[in-house]
Amino acid sequence: xxxxxxxxxxxxxxxxxxxxxxxxxxxxxxxxxxxxxxxxxxxxxxxxxxxxxxxxxxxxxxxxxxxxxxxxxxxxxxxxxxxxxxxxxxxxxxxxxxxxxxxxxxxx
Length: 108
Hints:
Distance between the termini: 20 Å
Radius of gyration: 15 Å
Strand order of the largest sheet: 1-2-3-4
Structural class: mainly beta
Number of strands: 7
Largest sheet: 4 strands, antiparallel
Helix content: under 10%
Number of helices: 1
């Protein structure tokens, strides 16, 4: 298991997420990719996940099955997103997320 805190290089995109800021809220969108997120297919289109108001957080989870020459393997991703003026290390530990999306599938 690996945990990191990363800040988006772009204000409009991070990994498979797109962000659209509208005054005091942030629209969070997600695009599924077979190569990035694995099977089963969840539709390769951009979908809205949730809107964050200032100081709110959201959580997102997805897993997938992949195939390689060595056989099958599995990956899971959990991402916490926050819309804040100033980030602090305990942001996701001091409050429950206002929004939570779980796209994990039964893989076996």
